[in-house]
Amino acid sequence: MENTQSSNILLCITGSIAAYKSADLARLFIKNGHNIRILMTDSACEFITPLTMQAISGNSVHRNLLDESAEQAMGHIELAKWADIILIAPCSAETISRLSSGRADDLLGAVILASKAQIYIAPAMNMNMWANIATQNNVESLRHRAMIFIGPSKGEQACGDNGYGRMSEPEEIYETIQMSENKLLNGKKIIVTAGPTREQIDPVRFISNNSSGKMGFALAEAASKSGADVTLIAGPVSLECSDQILRIDVNTAAEMYSESKKLIVDADIFIGCAAVADYSPIIQNQNKIKKSSSKDLQISLKKNIDIISSLSKEYPHKKFMGFCAETENVEEHAKIKLVEKGLDFIVANDVSKKDIGFDSDFNEISVFTKESHTHLQKASKNLLAIQLINMLSKDNQFIH
Ligand code: C5P
User: Fold this and answer.
1) Is residue 98 over pLDDT 60?
2) Mapping DSSP to helix (H, G, I), strand (E, B) and coil, where does residue 138 land?
3) N or C: which end of the chain has fewer CB within 10 A?
């Protein structure tokens, strides 16, 4: 996303192996016309040299709270006042803990306490350290102080573990901040459906699919950061969303339809990212069906209502974004669905590719409107979600 105005950005680097990515991050902001100053903690200097960051930013690096030369130039209060945005990337578990207790015995702690700027935090640490209840409590307390967390993302870590703890990629951090600052969807009401639905056969068996809900949850988060008032209608998934999002959990396609129908009345945009079951059993047995050793079991299915089609026909002036997972002739099938379902956008992904799609954190998608076709390269679902929300918010017919 292009920069709309130049801001003063204080990039704070703390002790993590991900500190090498801070150099790219700084360059990204500079390339897009922002003013950058760098603050480094002592342990950050073990991972990347202040000289590198000085050369990239064109300014001397701020390191010490009590530094005579720094006080004459830019002390902690001046630095705090200078910054429009403070970004801590990477942010270690130790720094999260120190910020949570409001420490001011180093430059970073003092600047954070003294600043009224929006603070963004991109954590980076071992997955167990991130998951630890102590860290999670600290994160919660910082969120209550309106600090915005970007990531961490999931993947292979420097220590060899694989899980949530990697610092998000510089581009994702940059795009999230741009989106969050621009707030192009301020005041818009958005409904996002996500995850699979579950159609019960009997009390213990059901028909469902492999949808993880990750893309829908990422879209809900991106829309919320963009200023929208988001309601997330989620099928059964083990994902969490931030407090700003109103979450409604459902199981069946019928429940998802009924919640969507109620909420669409006041909404501006409907994003149908859920993998809604197309069929459900005509009869749901009240008791567990007994296994018969001799006979096969027949289950009769009825077609479920197509939620997005039905809503787009009832509310043709609202905006609809649908998704489709295809294994062949992706473009052809997507374009047919765009028209048949009455959508403004359809996001198509090729689920025959193993490394992207359903349960993956990555995807590669094509977006079709009646007039255009945009291919979005393989990227994290978070970054793709930001790109999709940007497309929606820049759509001409939408910006009145
Ligand atoms: O036809 P297909 O299932 O490929 O279409 C997928 C799109 O339609 C998604 O946006 C999905 O959320 C939506 N859909 C729906 N209700 C259904 C089936 C699909 O809203 N019953």
Assistant:
1) yes
2) helix
3) C
